[in-house]
Amino acid sequence: MFILFKAPPEKDLEWDEADVEGQFRFLNRVWRMVAEFTPPPSKPSASPLSPGEQALRRAIHTAIKAVSEDLEGDYQFNTAVSELMKLSNALADADCKRSQVFTEGMQTLLILMAPFAPHITEELWHSLGHTESIHSQSWPILDPAALVADEITLVIQVLGKTRGTLQVPANADREALERYARESEAAQRHIAGKEIKKVIVVPGKLVNFVVG
């Protein structure tokens, strides 16, 4: 895992003990998550996904998309392993560990890891109760709808300096973004009582207030 993570195939590899230890910790973290995993009720819930479940499902399918592209394209194994680490972090931080979405995430992580760590993923796959080999499983299918976020993180800037962030609807237009930003506590601390000479709105990213 370290060799695959450290550098793309066409680059020279510099040995780094710290990165070796980092990959060891990553594999240990995945092992612990599987060991501590408790299956959810077998009957799927009919309730809509919670915000935490939506965020986790977005992380799952972001990883599917990224790892698939890395393996099908230029064999960027280092960025693929990085995406696996991001997904493991999302699972570790999830607040829905007794949900079907978390189960989907655990199984997806192991299948995506299998080409890189075939032996440990085979062992962990059977630990989840499966009887067939992980290497006979179908590759996870991307659900593009899962990648669509209901909210985005809008960066609030004053004179080009970041003063805070704000969660806003993903479909908000330029006028709405400016209004959300202008009314935010982060902006008010720095623009109150000052003349706003210009407002720069970058949809989906930031709002920058130029004050005098």
CATH superfamily of the largest domain: Isoleucyl-tRNA Synthetase, Domain 1
Q: What can be said about the biggest beta sheet?
A: 4 strands, mixed
Task: State the CATH architecture of the largest domain.
Answer: Orthogonal Bundle
CATH class category of the largest domain: Mainly Alpha
Find the CATH topology of the largest domain. Answer: Isoleucyl-tRNA Synthetase, Domain 1
- Number of DSSP-assigned strands: 4
Q: How would you classify the helix and strand content by structural class?
A: alpha+beta
Low-confidence stretches: none
| Average of the residue pLDDT scores | 88
Amount of helix = 40-55%
The order of strands across the largest sheet is 2-1-4-3
Our measurement of the CA-to-CA distance between the termini, rounded to an integer number of angstroms, reads 53 Å
Order of helices and strands: HHHHHHEEHHEE
**Global outline:** elongated
What is the alpha-carbon Rg in Å? 21 Å
Our count of helices gives 8
What fraction strand? Answer: 5-15%
Domain count: 2
